[in-house]
Amino acid sequence: MLNFRTMLELEDLDPAEVLIVRHIPREASLARVLPWLVVERPDLFLAWQQIQWASLEKAMTRARYIASFVSQDSKAGTFAGIYRIGSAQTLDYEGYCAFPGNRELEELGMSLREPDMAPCLAFDLERLRHYEDYIGRLTISWPPPFQGWWRRAKSGAFPVMAIDPESRFVRGMPDWHDLVLNWHELRSLPASWAAKLAQWRGVYFIHDVASGSGYVGSACGEDNILGRWLNYARTGHGGNAALRACDPANLSFSILQRTSPDLEVSDVVALETSWKNRLHTRRFGLNRN
């Protein structure tokens, strides 16, 4: 069976100089979007990797490369690239909070360090071209103990389980009946998902999980549902009076009804009104018209 360590050697990368890391965010919301970030927001995925906890941080000061994988199964990792480790800068708490990408990662669910924690290192990382065509497609078996999230490449076996024809990082979009996104995810949508939402017009629902209230809206203009939802992603409220009082981080977005792409605007608005009446979102929810 092909071993990833052998693949490193075939590219003249000494396994003794390589750390193999399987990223497993403990925050569920970040774990959901991290595979998307590898493909859609490599700048944020890089920021996620540049600062690590103490054990891996120490190992990175002595290594030349990291081979990154993302945990999508409990005993496996999906390839996310090989990176050269460069110099490192020491960050205090203020520097850590100001480090590019950290605030956006926090919005996606990452827990920031506490002010009383020791200073940390931020490494310069450069993604190399080795096996870049396999990003999202190559899966390795992760050796036990499975909770150990990094290894030295020279010290273990990493059998290649599969090389898929398509990326595992961006799976097919759920059926519109099952699609539920939170506000932070709207800004990191896979391109294929965004393309579908731009084609769909219809009636959507915004749920404030904090209050339990809901808002019904419709979309049939430029970029259809995508255009409306990206407006919420930018502003947090889309110009709606009651939504201004909500914390955008508590909002989730779903579709109540898809319509024909050539349905008249007046008919789409009529469907929106019908849903407002059935869900009582004027009296008990967030609709004000």
TrEMBL record:
Alphabetical list of CDD domains matching this protein: GIY-YIG_unchar_1
Protein name as annotated: GIY-YIG nuclease family protein
Species assigned in the record: Novosphingobium flavum
InterPro entries for the chain: GIY-YIG_endonuc_sf
